[in-house]
Amino acid sequence: MVALKGGDIDRFVKKPDRRFSVVLVYGPDAGLVHERCRSIARSLVDDPDDAFQLIRMDGDDLGGDTSRIVDEANTLGLFGGSRVIWIRLGSRQINSAIEPLLAAKPENPVVIEAGDLPAKHALRAGVEKSGHAVALPCYADEGRDLPRLIDEILAEHELKATSDAKILMAGLLGADRLLSRSEIEKLALYARGKPSVGAEDVEAIMADASALATDMLTDAVFMGDSVGADVALHRSLKEGQDAGVIVAALLRHALVLAKSRIGLDRGQTMQDVERQARIFFKRSASFQRHLSLWSLSSLENAITTLGEAQAACRKNAALGESLVSRACLTLAIAARRSQAGRA
Predict the structure, then answer these.
(1) CATH class, 146-206 region
(2) CATH 1.20.272.10 in the chain, residues?
């Protein structure tokens, strides 16, 4: 079975075709991939909250025991009823465990959550050749998809958006499904009780998704969360942000922190420091946490690291992603060491 496209994917997610016992959901939009896997898996069982019906498996946790996948996929429930196996692929290669499921139809449906797989990837190719398997590619929401997503989420909260509000939201969202959903749901909570969501509501509460991703990256880096920094950096790059622009944003933050650190060391109050730095009130708590972790000397080192990364990005844009990733990791490690020293 070849990969589904467009509206066929939406129809399958809403009502999975049970002729297909292996469903591969993949693509660069991790949020959309996860959302579709969850919807499909939950619709294939009687009670999605029953751990004996919805069996979750992580490829990285299997170690060398990949036979568990085949065993679970062909095990009937003790008390009858439906079962589904939801597998999240990681960095480990478990194609050998999936191949038997593509060769012979398993007793229980299997939903596979994967990242962005190239056309020649063995798993993707195997699924597309199997008569009882189907592949669902997931890419960033396009302009025509966003109005429907907005309507669906707002309808869950018994709300509707004006045409102006919908146009404004569509311009702010789109690169990551989970991020888009989070922003729309936040807006719905803000507008609860109103007859409709207007453009003024969007302007008041909904952050630009790319700005939100940058804030997430800044917080992770300067709080020492290297894993979170990697996730946030990937998201920022998916938003279409240039690596050099990302480095520049981190450098500006480090410079603001250094200036603020000097002010605090000279006796200024935190309120005065924040006012001079023009910190948005929603960012105040994060800003204060950063200042508590970074000394002036460590910030000077961070500024040097980011300055060098920025210069390198300008000289060789092709290496931009690697350069910003290394700079983020360097700063996150420094912040983590600072946390350990204060513990």
Answers:
(1) mainly alpha
(2) 210-337
Sign of CA dihedral 123, 125, 129, 134: positive
The CATH code for residues 6-137 is 3.40.50.300
Outline which parts of the chain fall under CATH 3.40.50.300: 6-137
Going from the C-alpha of 131 to that of each of 1, 135, 160, 227, the distances in angstroms are 5, 11, 42, 39
In tens digits, the chain (343 residues) has pLDDT values of 567 877 788 889 889 998 999 999 998 777 788 889 999 999 998 888 888 899 998 877 775 666 888 888 888 766 666 899 999 887 677 788 888 899 999 989 999 998 888 888 889 999 989 999 999 988 765 555 778 888 989 999 999 999 888 877 876 776 567 777 888 888 999 999 898 999 888 877 775 556 677 888 999 999 999 888 988 898 788 777 788 889 999 999 999 999 999 999 999 999 999 988 888 777 888 999 999 999 999 999 999 999 999 999 888 888 999 999 999 999 999 998 887 665 5
CATH number of the 210-337 domain: 1.20.272.10
- Per the CB < 8 A criterion, the answer to whether 112 and 98 are in contact is yes
